[in-house]
Amino acid sequence: MQRIKEAASLRADCLLWEDDPKLGRVPLIVGETTKTDVDSDARWPASPSVEVAVAAMTSIARLRMRCAAAHPKIRPTDVDQSNPFLFDRAFEPWVTTKAQPPYSTRIYPMSYRTVIVENPKLFEVEQLKLTNEDLRISRMLNPSLCNEERLEVGAVWPLAWHQLRRTAAVNMFASGLLSDSSMQFQMKHASRLMPLYYSRGYTKLHLNEEVEDLVIVAMYEAMANNLLAAMGDRFVSPHGVKLKQAIVVNLIGEKDAKSLAVAARRGKVFFRETRLGGCAARGTCSYGGVESIAHCAGGDGTAPCSDALFDRSKALEVEMELTKVDQELASLPAGSPRYKALVAERKGLENFLNVIRN
Predict the structure, then answer these.
(1) Alpha helices in the chain, H assignment, sequence order
(2) Which of 40, 218, 221, 247 has the fewest CB atoms below 10 angstroms from its CB?
(3) Same domain, 216 and 105
(4) Dihedral sign, Cα of residue 117, residue 120, residue 124, residue 126
């Protein structure tokens, strides 16, 4: 998820492990970001598979550092020798380049396309060739590609480093598992609005029929599981126990998960997940409960929505969101539209915490 310059500036000690009470050991990549979110000690949550990559690159970097340290013109510092950059040029005696600048002079990585061309065994070429379906989806996401002469069936896709970052961002948005603020943190964007640029690609993409069926089945199964969870203590109503019982009885009665999924698909029961828990309202809702929870939780000056159910397990997430809202409010001019919207959002988050704590 890093920009290529951020990845190219990582050093051998870039991998840290954090012990999380819920997630266990979480790998963090530590580095520097200087574009939109300036931070000399930034963190990127990553997959455990990065450990293999960092270990391999560290081994190569330390071997090359032995050559660099022996070269009279490269002059790496003691810090460089103990903690080399993972990405650097070759310093081996047999390299063809005679002029070697100092170690402090950073090089820009070669393009992703060049990497593929110079390493022909890295990918199967046939897998990189464009098909009619590839072009259909690509032009659906970006109509300007119609004017790109290089894009034709059978041609090799002109890959770039940033496409990896963009694809990952679209997939993050499509998963429905990450909030805008989480995406902003991972992408190192200055504003929460910037990740929404990537969401446009996802919302334009029409899934093929097979994938669409799988997604729909999974969606209704998830809805059924959430409905069953609503019967327990995990979900509460901001209007008290009696209204919650009425909502649950009206929704599901004595159905099991399988029959709930069937009923949900037929439109007989409805339960939509929101940032605060769930919504039992039938049909569409103009407030949503995703972009803003102000109306759902009564942050806009009205009473909390009677169809809303609050999920106790989201307490920590809401507390973190409240902190971020306070930080953003401190940087905004009072009375601005964004300031007023965040004040309502903050009130809704506080109402949620008051309900689940009481």
Answers:
(1) 4-8, 50-70, 78-82, 112-118, 125-128, 132-141, 161-175, 180-187, 196-204, 209-230, 241-251, 257-265, 315-330, 337-357
(2) 40
(3) no
(4) positive
> Final residue of a domain: which of 109, 140, 155?
109
Total domains present in the chain: 2
Tens-of-pLDDT digits for all 358 residues of the chain? 888 888 999 999 999 999 888 778 899 999 988 776 677 888 888 889 999 999 999 999 999 999 999 988 899 999 999 999 999 888 888 887 667 888 988 888 889 989 988 998 999 988 888 888 887 777 666 655 655 556 788 888 888 888 888 778 777 776 667 777 777 778 887 666 565 555 555 544 444 444 544 555 555 556 556 655 655 667 677 777 666 566 554 555 444 445 555 555 555 556 667 778 877 776 566 665 556 778 888 888 888 888 787 888 888 888 998 998 899 889 888 888 788 888 988 999 999 999 888 8
Question: Among 46, 75, 109, which residue terminates a domain?
Answer: 109
